[in-house]
Design a protein that fits this description.
alpha+beta; eight-stranded antiparallel β-sheet; two-stranded antiparallel ribbon; 3 helices; globular
Length: about 200
């Protein structure tokens, strides 16, 4: 489930912090995207009510497979049904920056957390440059091991800026790897379609 995934990310972050404390001459660590956002933003907070979003989050979802659910802290949560297992979680962070902030640079930090998951095996990483709508976007897929099972994971980040207000869209899809390649590709395609339409 997605909450287990969030827990694993928190555990990975704690392991990174422990490694920083115990390493004497290790190379500089990579900064996770939310930590980087916290450093660059004047303020930042998670948006959990879609009515407070300037626009709407759109995603190409097969409603025959995915049903909506609710969970605190998520803007949207979908659960796989009809013989499939998996979740898709949508998180949106609204932030305020000063005029010179490099919002597109956030995407340099998009892949850090997943690479600390247990036995992470990265399959694909793509990054889209800034365009008319976004400051850039990324998509990362791979597998990790947790709770005695191998899990497929697809993660998308997209950064948006309108003046000094920005949004970081974070969409994660997870499913047991045994779900098969076709279902995993469908999750990645669904995740990859997520966007803020304002």
């Amino acid at each position: 489930m997605t909450s287990d995934f969030d827990s694993r990310l928190a555990t990975a972050a704690a392991r990174r912090a422990d490694a920083r404390r115990t390493a004497h001459s290790s190379p500089p660590r990579e900064v996770p995207i939310l930590e980087r956002l916290g450093r660059m933003a004047i303020s930042a907070h998670r948006v959990a009510d879609e009515r407070s979003v300037c626009g709407e989050i759109l995603m190409d979802v097969d409603r025959e497979i995915w049903r909506p659910a609710r969970a605190p802290g998520y803007l949207d949560l979908l659960i796989a049904d009809h013989g499939h297992e998996g979740t898709i979680a949508v998180v949106l962070t609204r932030f305020v920056v000063d005029g010179g902030a490099d919002v597109a640079g956030l995407l340099d930090h998009a892949c850090v957390e997943a690479r600390d998951l247990p036995e992470w095996d990265e399959q694909e990483v793509t990054r889209a440059a800034a365009d008319f709508r976004t400051e850039g976007a990324s998509l990362q897929t791979g597998t990790y091991v947790g709770d005695g099972e191998t899990w497929f994971c697809a993660i998308r980040y997209a950064a948006y800026r309108r003046g000094n207000v920005g949004y970081l869209l974070h969409v994660t899809g997870t499913a047991p790897a045994r779900e098969g390649a076709e279902f995993r590709r469908a999750i990645a395609a669904t995740i990859g379609s997520a966007r803020l339409d304002d």
